[in-house]
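Morning run. Coffee first, then this:
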Amino acid sequence: MTADGSPPLQVAISGAGRMGARHARIFDDLADTEVCVIHDPRPAAECDLPAHLQRRCTRSYRAFLERARLADMAVVAGPTATHSGVARDLIGCGLPCLVEKPMTMRPWECLMLDRMARARGIGLYCAHVERFNPALRATADVLRTWQWETVSLTRQNPGSTRLSGDSIVTDLMIHDLDIMQHVMGLTPEALLAVEGGTDEQGRAVGEGASHVTVRLQGDAGYPVTLNTGRLPDHPVRAIHARGTQGRLHVDLLNGCHHLEPAEGVTPPIPLVSAPGDALTHQARAMVASVMDGRAHGLASARESWQTLTLCHLIEQRLRLTAHQDSCLH
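And here it is:
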């Protein structure tokens, strides 16, 4: 029972890998939700879950859907290639869904799922968890409204071995593209430069690059640079902004920031008013959305479509560069 005596919302979770297990533990800890069923093709004992959640696991997708029909909401956190089909089935069951990023493999699938969810009158959101980072939430208004001359977003994750052979654009850079578009409110007008890492022969590589740098022109009149990779000795998730009103550094990894106003500028000091785990804040937002139908800061399917479309444009540029380089050699 919840604090007001009502029964907890029942949550169905598809996928018990790294992210799926984290979602399961988070929703299991919330006072107003209960994980009722988890689907994963692996034996429950191989999933990183406590014993009581392992007992709610099933390897049968059919059994999962049968039990999910009795739930109040669902989380889709299996392999990206399965997101579209699983979300479609859960929406068909009438369940509001939170889908791990990227929402789908192809942008048009986001719009298809969006139409399905709207037809059923239920919420469909993408788990862009960085939106709920306390440091980003504290500085979002400053990032959105100050007159910047340049902004850079850096994301380095050297420990992410699961990315080997995969695109770091759709797995890592996608976070910062979402921040740029939907937190800062910028519309990209041009891809000024797209550079990928090189292989052991010094040749450019495509979306399998271990480091990607993108420079965009936004509609606010200043360039935005995104640096993403697995190269440094330590992880970095940070935003640097410089303009006539001052400088801002947001440390997303450690949940803090430093604002240095220019002389004569006296802005309100943004405070980190809701410290804590971003994934927990996101889960609470999803619960609130199920209760009242509002987004509460969650990324919509249409926003996910916009961000994923930009990812694919960047990947096309990377492939073109790699092809041109191979022709030269």
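The two ends are 67 Å apart (CA to CA). Good start to the day.
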